[in-house]
Amino acid sequence: QQQVKQSPQSLIVQKGGISIINCAYENTAFDYFPWYQQFPGKGPALLIAIRPDVSEKKEGRFTISFNKSAKQFSLHIMDSQPGDSATYFCAASEWGTASKLTFGTGTRLQVTL
Amino acid sequence: NAGVTQTPKFRVLKTGQSMTLLCAQDMNHEYMYWYRQDPGMGLRLIHYSVGEGTTAKGEVPDGYNVSRLKKQNFLLGLESAAPSQTSVYFCAGAIADSYEQYFGPGTRLTVT
Fold first, then answer.
1. Does A45 touch chain B if contact means CB atoms closer than 8 Å?
2. Distance, in angstroms, between B55 CA and closest chain A CA?
3. Which of A45, A49, B26, B73 has its CA 20 to 30 A from that of B2?
């Protein structure tokens, strides 16, 4: 049972454009929603995260939008750059569960010149 | 600080062979995790530990065993490797009561 569904599987965006990746979850007990960025041959690294008490969080060019009623959250990358080309994973966690993360299936982003 | 390190980086096994993957951390992580990453399936939790001497099953534990004899090390064992265990394995650690997990660089395992 996949508890976090991520789309699209892959995404091609021109330099300067906006990249949008979406995730939906089922478990209403989830209370932490991070996005991880992974470059080829490397381990995932935390990019940005949000708690359900806010609807949006912005860090530089990266923004998470969160819709609690729809059980959806998304990552927006503004002014996308070739250096942003990577695989992005959304995830979710529930307090009191040893910080275990349930990951989405990943989105491979390619930013072209 | 080295962070989270994994040994080895690559390994090729024949079906039925055994091996142990080592994860070491110097970040004082109470919690440690082993994941496998397969194309189109994201990262799936194999086993995890909430402290020295403790282990618990994750989403896909079959065929794997783990041990956490020391706080800084988390070992993942394959007793009898199968081709279905061909994957990239990642170890991660987290401070207790912190959501953020720090990942190692991964081990690419091929079972022929």
1. yes
2. 11
3. A49
> In sequence order, what DSSP letters do the residues of B66-79 get, joined into one string?
EE-SSTTEEEEEES
Q: How far apart are CA B69 and CA A17, in angstroms?
A: 49
- Tell which of A32, A97, A100, A102 to mutate to test the B interface (max B CBs under 10 Å): A100
pLDDT at A28: 92
The answer, yes or no, to whether residue B69 has pLDDT greater than 80, is yes
Chain A: closest CA distance from residue B47 (Å): 10
pLDDT tens figures, A73-105 = 999 999 999 999 999 999 999 887 888 999 999
Distance between CA atoms of A109 and A87, rounded to whole angstroms? 6
Those residues with Cβ within 8 angstroms of residue B67's Cβ, 6 or more apart along the chain or in another chain? B55, B74, B75, B77
> In this predicted model, what pLDDT tens digit does every residue of B74-102 receive, in sequence order?
999 999 999 999 999 999 999 987 889 99
For the segment A22-31, what is each residue's pLDDT rounded down to a tens digit? 999 999 999 9
- Residue indicated by tokens 């530990």: B49
Contact A41 B31 (CB under 8 A): no
Q: What is the pLDDT of residues B5-24, one digit of tens each?
A: 999 999 999 999 999 999 99
Burial call B58-70: b when 16+ CB within 10 Å, e when fewer = bbbbeebebebee
- On the CB side of B99, CA atoms within 13 Å amount to 19
